[in-house]
Design brief:
- The N and C termini lie far apart (99 Å).
- A hairpin with a 5-residue loop joins strand 14 and strand 15.
- Helix content is 42%, strand content 16%.
- With 433 residues, it is α/β, with parallel strands linked by helices.
- The protein folds into three domains: 36-143, 3-Layer(aba) Sandwich (Glutaredoxin), CATH 3.40.30; 147-245, Glutaredoxin (3-Layer(aba) Sandwich); 250-374, Glutaredoxin (3-Layer(aba) Sandwich).
Length: 433
């Protein structure tokens, strides 16, 4: 699952280049082994010892030195995270897919090269970038309460700025409310990927236009939320609604869930993604993103429309790879369709490099994608046509070469005949003498 885009970053951002001042000392691996080799004898003890257990399910250690080095780098990521979170009651371990197959089966590990987190009776799969920074942030989020409470206007302002994420907010009588308890239990099912908020304050609820026991669902980049119908809600009803509507029209690729976003069959259209590259801090990128948001808001009713926005600044190490693979210039905004299995792609032609497409032009192009008029197979056909043209050119060149050879042969024959005639004339002259 993670092979296409996996980039191990065990030390990036964790080792200071210049001498560190007090308070800015980034952690360095101290050499102590904290990651357990999980097997049939110790896995129960490990699960009982820690409040959370983080396990990497990996292929058997290979014979190749290059692959062994990659495995060691992966282990170093876990060691560094384990060191940083040593006081947080989180255990770390590795499960060999061959040697520890029985344990893997008992624990329900089925996807090699994936990280699984066991918390109480839940198993959460980590689908993010395997770096120390990203994994640490992910695990710290899991340690927090699944529901954050909004008590005042300042906290509400912060909530309103979280437009890049799926989030839910509900208004309840108090923390002892059975309806809040159902909301909290539903939140645990989606933590930390989906944010849940609640308020018990009438003034905050009024600004959110929430009635008692009502829950609003916010899709990324949408201006208005959707109120979940038929309040109050049970845990099962909330989970069912979120599962059905968690596929957003426009979502941002984030390090903490990038593989879930990229590989998820819920977010692609018959194996392809609509992908937009735009730097939010760049004027052109910001303008293009605003156009993209406008199109997404106007077409959020389309069930098949799901656009993945990537800010290249968030994935600097991947920029050369993307430019080479997709054959696009990421210094300017781009939008295209990408096949998630082979990274084949087709990108929207922007006729004027100075002007970005209008919302209507972008909407027309997206309609062509959804209807199948624009797809990655057309690009394959064009490549095949180019190959055929090259073959035809080669054939023409061969024919021309053959004609040239024939002409040369004719010239040689004519020269030979002329030489023979000259020789005959010379012989006749000798006879006369």
């Amino acid at each position: 699952m993670h092979h296409l885009w996996l980039m191990l970053l065990p030390f990036l951002g964790l080792v200071s280049v210049a001498p560190a001042e007090k308070g800015l000392e980034f952690p360095r691996y101290d050499g102590k082994d904290r990651v357990l080799d999980i097997n049939d004898r110790n896995y129960r003890k490990a699960m009982n010892k820690y409040s959370m257990l983080c396990l990497l399910y990996h292929e058997p250690i290979p014979d190749s030195k290059e692959l062994q080095k990659k495995h060691q780098m992966t282990e170093m990521v876990l060691e560094l995270v384990a060191q940083v979170l040593e006081e947080k009651d989180i255990g770390f371990g590795m499960v060999d897919a061959k040697k520890d197959a029985k344990v893997a089966k008992k624990l329900g590990l089925d996807e090699v090269d994936s990280v699984y987190v066991f918390k109480e009776d839940r198993v959460i799969e980590f689908d993010g970038l395997l770096s120390a920074n990203t994994m640490t942030e992910f695990l710290l989020d899991l340690l927090e309460d699944p529901v954050e409470v909004l008590d005042n206007a300042l906290e509400l302002r912060a909530f309103n700025r979280m437009d890049e994420e799926i989030r839910l907010v509900g208004f309840f009588k108090n923390q002892e409310s059975e309806h809040f308890e159902a909301f909290k239990e539903a939140a645990e099912q989606f933590q930390p990927y989906i944010k849940f908020f609640a308020t018990f304050e009438k003034t905050v609820a009024k600004q959110l236009t929430l009635k008692m026991n009502e829950v609003d669902f916010y899709e990324p980049f949408m201006e208005e939320p959707v109120t979940i119908p038929e309040k109050p809600h049970s845990e099962e009803e909330l989970v069912a609604f979120i599962t059905k509507h968690r596929r957003p029209t426009l979502r941002k690729l984030r390090a903490e869930d990038m593989f879930e976003t990229w590989v998820s069959r819920e977010d692609d259209i018959e194996g392809i993604h609509i992908v937009a590259f735009a730097e939010e801090e760049d004027p052109d990128g910001f303008e293009f993103l605003e156009i993209l948001k406008e199109v997404a808001r106007d077409n959020t009713h389309l069930p098949d429309l799901s656009i993945v926005w990537i800010d290249p600044d968030d994935f600097s190490l991947l920029i050369p790879y993307w430019e080479k693979t997709f054959k696009v210039d990421l210094f300017r905004p781009q939008i295209g369709v990408v096949n998630v299995t082979d990274a084949d792609s087709v990108w929207m032609a922007m006729d004027d490099e100075e002007d970005l497409p209008t919302a209507q032009e972008l909407e027309d192009w997206i309609e062509d994608v959804l209807s199948g008029k624009v797809n990655t197979e057309d690009d394959d056909d064009e490549d095949d046509d180019d190959d055929d043209d090259d073959d035809d050119d080669d054939d023409d060149d061969d024919d021309e070469d053959d004609d040239d050879d024939d002409d040369d042969d004719d010239d040689d024959d004519d020269d030979s005949d002329e030489d023979e005639d000259d020789d005959d004339d010379d012989d006749d002259d000798d006879d006369d003498e």
